[in-house]
Specification:
The protein is an alpha/beta fold. It has 2 domains: 126 residues, Rossmann fold; 176 residues, Dihydrodipicolinate Reductase, domain 2. It contains 10 helices and 15 strands. The strands form 2 sheets. The protein has a 9-stranded mixed beta sheet. Strands 3-2-1-4-5-6 form a 6-stranded parallel beta sheet, with helices on both faces. A hairpin with a 2-residue loop joins strand 11 and strand 12. Helix 1 crosses helix 2 and helix 5 runs antiparallel to helix 10. The termini are far apart.
């Protein structure tokens, strides 16, 4: 079976991780990269995968990548608000798409993407790389084992102090994809949602907005019904945090570092009524390579992605409702 040929649209910073991941994946080859900025695609390739300069095509634009006959899958790491248009174009050219989180900033756009994927018989997945690290499966298996009881509360915290070089992330309003909510918020909300069997029924949030209408910090509450709730705090003003914790009547489990560096072991902390406080070490793993390996298999074996279309839709619905709550200063029903 032939390797999956990959194309990348955009010279985003995350390519530092994805380009080597594609090159090192079990059955994937990087074929082409395109950027609308003149010379940026070549620069990105030489910076992140210099040994492949003679093997990978680079273009000043997207169409050459989308229409490349050897490209089977497209990775889209563009600005949040730009995902939908190019993803639709790629799928209409019969390309599978891995879209960096969030899939889109409007739930209706996510629905459109899902419909287009089905119409063109291609695979689509939202790019939450952390979900492919072994620590994620370990935490989820702990929750599903019921050793903690039925989860009734969870909390997530995601933040880092934003530097001037990254101000492009907050130079436009939330409605246009700017701010912490659409940048690191997808992680905070996604981790929380994985802890519950139920989908959210309503949300309430407050935020610190800048002069562009982008949130610098947002704190909120998600109601899952049946006295199950979750809280979150995301910020470009606080020290670096990437953690979540789930609680049940019989104990709790904590993931202290969600975005675990590939050269470091992960740690899971658990405290149960039966076993007391324990810490478990999870071997180091490159979740970017694992994510690409998975999507390669999804395409070649025609199986469903680990992160489903419905999961992407509910994440968008929840984030969209949080944005509305910030504007209205009230509870918003999903």
């Amino acid at each position: 079976m032939k390797n999956i040929g990959w194309g990348i649209l955009g010279a985003a910073r995350v390519n530092e991780r994805l380009m080597p991941a594609i090159a090192q994946s079990d059955s994937g080859d990087l074929i082409a990269i395109g950027s609308r900025r003149t010379g940026a695609a070549k620069e990105c390739l030489l910076k992140n995968l210099p040994e492949s300069e003679d093997k990978v095509s680079y273009f000043d634009g997207f169409d050459q990548v989308i229409n490349h006959e050897k490209v089977d899958a497209i990775y889209i790491p563009l600005a949040n608000e730009e995902h939908t248009e190019v993803a639709l174009k790629a799928m209409r050219s019969k390309k599978h798409v891995l879209i960096e989180k969030p899939m889109a900033i409007k739930s209706e756009e996510v629905k459109t993407l899902i419909e287009e994927a089905s119409k063109n018989n291609v695979k689509i997945m939202e790019g939450f790389m952390y979900a492919f690290h072994p620590q994620f499966d370990r935490v989820m298996n702990t929750i599903k084992s019921n050793i903690l009881g039925d989860i009734n509360y969870a909390h997530s915290m995601f933040s880092f102090p934003i530097q001037p070089a990254r101000f492009y992330r907050i130079n436009r309003s939330m409605e246009n994809g700017g701010g912490a909510l659409w940048d690191i918020g997808p992680y905070a909300i996604h981790t929380l949602r994985q802890c519950f069997k139920e989908n959210p029924i309503r949300v309430k949030a407050t935020a610190n907005l800048n002069e562009h209408g982008a949130d610098i910090s947002t704190t909120g509450l998600i109601d899952f019904g049946n006295n199950k709730r979750a809280t979150f705090d995301i910020s470009f003003e606080c020290t670096r945090r990437s953690e979540f914790e789930a609680f049940g009547p019989l104990g709790r489990v904590k993931c202290p570092t969600v975005w675990q560096p590939e050269n470091e072991q992960a740690k899971i902390i658990m405290n149960t009524e039966s076993s007391g406080l324990t810490e478990e070490v999870v071997p180091a793993a490159n979740h970017f390579i694992l994510e690409v390996n998975h999507f390669n298999k999804v395409i070649s074996s025609d199986i469903s992605p680990k992160l489903s279309k419905e999961d992407a839709l509910w994440n968008a619905k929840t984030l969209e409702s949080i944005e509305q709550s910030i504007k209205t200063h009230s509870w918003v029903n999903l």
